[in-house]
Design a protein that fits this description.
Number of helices: 17
Structural class: alpha/beta
Strand content: 15-25%
Distance between the termini: 46 Å
Shape: globular
Oligomer: single chain
Helix content: 25-40%
């Protein structure tokens, strides 16, 4: 049993942010605080924690697994008990024998360089016999269908593949209490379906499960109870019966995402209520020549990894100019690699890109295209959010910088260090920098990863605003709600990348 009694919490330093020593755990210094939280999770219960970004979901998980106060410094009142033991007074390695956690950023929980060793790590730490460790790994790999990810470098995996390994490393331990922080943030629909199956099996085995999540649809029929947080307090608690009666409109009114599960394979013939086609038209009627002003034309696009393996082979692809195009596909199909090559970061890429009748070399593309990365920590450099926007402008314009920040609900954070913000806030800072750059073509890699419903809509409006400015917007995403909200065109990468297509067959 998990018990949080009269918990109030505020962080005392930047260690409470997402990039403390452990990194990637969620809330920011000022966000994530808690006020008078009383919560009990019974043995074998499945509880969904949800609410807006920074509402305190991650902080509750940190309390349960003992990271607060044993790792993160915080002003804490109240008590947290796991199986009758006060975890605040327990050693972290003792709590880890009972509680397993899948972090929001799986990189922050890896201790090895290859996948197989990572699965063995926790069991080795407990001194299990080698035969038992291998048996557990074998069972887990088969259950999660991870055969093609074994004996691989963790550095060469996609975000979704890393998330699979993180879940597997938890499954291997056999712990009875499992915490997951935004586990679906970087996963495709197929992998989310696999995660749902795994969670169903854990629930059937009687494990106690607490999931902090924005994308609630795949969990809605699994959870026994939903706790909705707002500004560090429990705003509403929904029983199973109340969840069964909850409408999409009711959840949206609370700032939550849809509880309707998306199709595993979206139907090309599906039509939205406003008459738009989903997926949008593929613009096959565009002329097949490099001078066409209506499209961005990609020809003979190829990319090889350092080991010589071919990752991309795209004979031809057209992307509509001045539209919002979603690039979709399964984890590991090369979507992020495609964006990196498109903007000129792929040093081993070959092929041509034609725009406005001109061919752009890799170096020239770097001045034409702006990329917002999936892990925005790699592109935040300055000492303040405001400076992050200024350095992206061709000519510094403080008034415009303030306007951009205000449009993204970041005005109150302009003096804050970017690395002290929550994951969702950092994402918005990176988007603000992209807008400030003024580039003609904007690339976004999972821009709504880890974002709540309100900020997902906000990103959709921002992308639509860029489109109105005449920008060509290309978005790699698994977020069907975002696609429905604002995208004009959907391109499934495997339909054009012969490497991904071959791997599917």
């Amino acid at each position: 049993m998990i018990e949080l009694k009269n918990i109030s919490l505020s962080y005392t330093s930047s260690d409470g942010g997402e990039n403390g020593a452990a990194g990637g755990l969620g809330e920011s210094v000022s966000n994530g605080s808690l006020k008078n939280i009383n919560l009990t999770v019974s043995d074998g219960e499945f509880v969904l924690l949800t609410g807006g970004s920074g509402c305190g979901k991650t902080s509750i998980l940190r309390l349960i697994n003992g990271l607060i106060p044993n790792f993160y410094e915080a002003n804490l009142t109240g008590s947290v008990y796991v199986n009758g033991q006060n975890v605040s007074n327990a050693e972290l390695y003792d709590t880890a024998k009972i509680v397993s956690t899948v972090f929001q950023n799986p990189r922050s929980q890896f201790f090895n360089v290859d996948t197989t060793s990572e699965l063995a790590f926790a069991c080795e730490n407990r001194g299990m016999p080698e035969d038992e460790i291998l048996r557990r790994i074998d069972i887990t790999v088969k259950k999660l269908h991870l055969e093609n990810l074994m004996n691989r470098s963790l550095f060469n995996l996609s975000g979704g593949q890393k998330q699979k390994i993180a879940c597997a490393s938890v499954a291997v331990t056999g712990n009875q209490i499992i915490l997951l922080d935004e586990p679906s943030a970087n996963l495709d629909l197929r992998t989310i379906a696999g995660l749902k199956t795994l969670l169903s099996e854990w629930k059937a085995e009687g494990k106690t499960i607490v999931v902090a999540e924005h994308r609630i649809s795949y969990l809605w029929n699994l959870a026994d109870r939903t706790i909705i947080l707002k500004e560090g307090q429990i705003e509403k608690e929904l029983s199973r019966q109340e969840m069964d009666c909850a409408t999409e409109e009711f959840l949206h009114s609370l700032g939550l995402r849809s509880n309707k599960e998306q199709q595993l394979k979206p139907n090309p013939d599906e039509v939205d209520t406003d008459g738009r086609d989903l997926p949008p038209p593929t613009f096959q009627n565009l002329q097949q020549n490099s001078s066409n002003a209506d499209c961005l034309l990609i020809q003979n696009f190829r990319y090889k990894y350092k080991n010589g393996c071919l990752a991309l082979n795209i004979p031809q692809m057209q992307i509509a100019k001045g539209r919002i195009t979603a690039i979709t596909g399964n984890n590991g199909e090369g979507k992020t690699t495609f964006l990196n090559c498109l903007c000129g970061l792929g040093h081993r890429s070959k092929g041509g890109l034609f725009y406005n009748g001109k061919k752009y070399s890799r170096r020239k593309r770097q001045k034409l295209i702006y990329l917002v990365m999936q892990d925005v920590n790699h592109q935040l450099f300055t000492e303040s959010v405001f400076d992050e926007v200024l350095i992206s402008q061709t000519d510094e314009d403080e008034e415009e910088a303030h306007r951009i920040l205000a449009s993204l609900d970041l005005a109150d954070f302009s003096d804050r260090h970017p690395q002290s913000l929550s994951g969702g806030q950092k994402q918005r800072v990176a988007v603000a920098a992209a807008i400030a750059s003024g580039r003609d073509i904007m690339l976004f890699d999972e821009p709504t990863s880890g974002l709540d419903y309100t900020h997902m809509l906000q990103i959709g409006k921002i992308l639509a605003g860029l489109k109105e400015m005449g920008k060509t917007v290309i978005v790699v995403t698994h977020d069907r709600e975002l696609i429905k909200e604002c995208c004009d065109q959907e391109i499934r990468l495997a339909d054009y990348n012969s490497v991904a297509k071959a791997n599917q067959s």
